[in-house]
Design brief:
225 residues, mainly alpha, 10 helices, 78% helix
């Protein structure tokens, strides 16, 4: 799970930020983009949200590797980064509501509503520092423990530059952060999957079938409300 997470999460994030690259960063332009390109923007925000959520097993794996030599950096870096992922998931929920306000009330009304409520307090705002600082601590720990070399550790730290908040578009920093995660984590994920105990072919096929069946059932259950 950790290896697959380290591969899938960063690639989904990079795909999502690139899909909305041509639109302006701030939320009025994001809402307008959704009004004109709903499928594209839905895909962008969906894969970014999935990427953040899918990263948690990989972060846990990375923290465990760091913890073999630097326990405190592993604990704090891993905990803060995963808390930051929770906050990102909350932001994704607000993004979903904001975009669908365009569908229900139109882009002008949706923009006004988001503008009037943008600074409203929510408990996850206390995790803004964790969203940024957790990746830096993980990068320091990964470098000091020699899990990552200096280049890939620096690339991991770039994840802290990903803009935070709701209805945020893509900036050069967004691309750098997502690309940095790919450079730092994808090779680590591939290595983890190659060096782990290899399951039998029948086991792999059975798991894939189970994931397909259970995933389809969960999707239908979710759509049923």
């Amino acid at each position: 799970m950790g290896g697959a997470s380290l591969v899938a999460g960063p690639l989904l994030l990079l795909t999502g930020v690139l899909l909305r690259l041509r639109f302006d960063f701030f939320f009025p332009a994001q809402l307008s983009a959704y009004a004109h390109h709903p499928d594209l923007m839905t895909a962008s925000y969906s894969v970014v949200a999935a990427g953040w959520v899918l990263l948690w097993p990989g972060v846990a794996l990375l923290a465990a590797r760091i913890g073999e030599t630097f326990r405190e950096l592993a604990v704090w870096g891993g905990a803060l980064t995963i808390l930051g992922l929770f906050a990102r998931a909350f932001h994704a929920g607000v993004d979903h509501l904001g975009l669908h306000l365009v569908t229900v009330h139109g882009v002008t009304s949706a923009t006004r509503t988001v503008s009037e409520t943008y600074g409203a307090f929510h408990v996850f705002s206390t995790l803004n520092a964790a969203i940024m600082g957790g990746w830096v601590l993980l990068a320091v720990g990964a470098y000091r423990s020699r899990v990552l070399g200096p280049v890939r550790a620096t690339a991991l730290a770039l994840a802290s530059a990903m803009p935070l908040g709701v209805l945020k578009g893509t900036t050069p920093w967004s691309v750098a952060a997502a690309a940095g995660l790919c450079v730092a984590l994808v090779p680590l994920g591939v290595a983890a999957m190659r060096t782990g105990p290899a399951p039998r072919t029948a086991t792999v096929v059975g798991r894939l079938v189970m994931v397909g069946v259970v995933g389809t059932a969960m999707f239908l259950f979710g759509q049923a409300g």
